[in-house]
Amino acid sequence: MQLIATLEVLTFYVIAFGVRSLVQWMKTGKTGFAGVRQGAPPLEWLGAALLMLVVVLGPIAPWIGSAHFEWGRGFGVALAGLGIVFTLVAQLQMGTSWRIGVDPSERTALVTGGVFALVRNPIYSAMLLTSVGLALAVPTTLALALPPVLLLALEIQVRVVEEPYLREVHGEPYRAWAARTGRFVPGVGRLTS
Predict the structure, then answer these.
(1) Which of 52, 130, 159, 179 is spaced 20 to 30 Å from 185 by Cα?
(2) pTM across the whole model
(3) Ramachandran region of residue 99, left (φ > 0), alpha (ψ -120 to 50) or beta?
(4) What is the domain partition of the chain in residue ranges?
(5) What class is the 2-21+40-98+108-180 domain?
(6) Residues 6+ apart with CB under 8 A from 123
(7) 125-169 pLDDT, tens per residue?
(8) Quick check: 125 and 131 in contact, CB under 8 A?
């Protein structure tokens, strides 16, 4: 099960970051990686550091320590696989607006259709689904710790970096969409102002 979980993590990385960046580069001439903004506040750096921690520890988490329970293994593998598929679907629907990080000089289209009509951050939702699935598949202490760390990193990225940027760039269309669409889960985390 450890090998399967590690292969799922690596497959996720190849699809979510490698393949998507290649497609982005082929369509736009840019990889879509913006990184952390120069002069970014400490909270933004914390979010990026937590995300990198999850990325680095994800493939090795199944191998460090022993599993705390057995009941979720098959379900966890399936859930992680579903998360990988959902990530790919959301990335495809985002098209050339897909980015990792925010480049304040870039203006991309606001994507509100498809899965983005249900949640504003379906790629992040799918990442969380994958992380929870992997934690259930190989429930070591480290693997179980990664989903909450990932959630914290994504909450910081969304609330501190992306939502303010999208409000500024897209104005009222973004505010209207955010008022009716949940952040990670349908109906939960809608913006009121």
Answers:
(1) 52
(2) 0.91
(3) beta
(4) 2-21+40-98+108-180
(5) mainly alpha
(6) 16, 87, 90, 91, 94, 98
(7) 999 999 999 999 999 999 999 999 999 999 999 999 999 999 999
(8) no
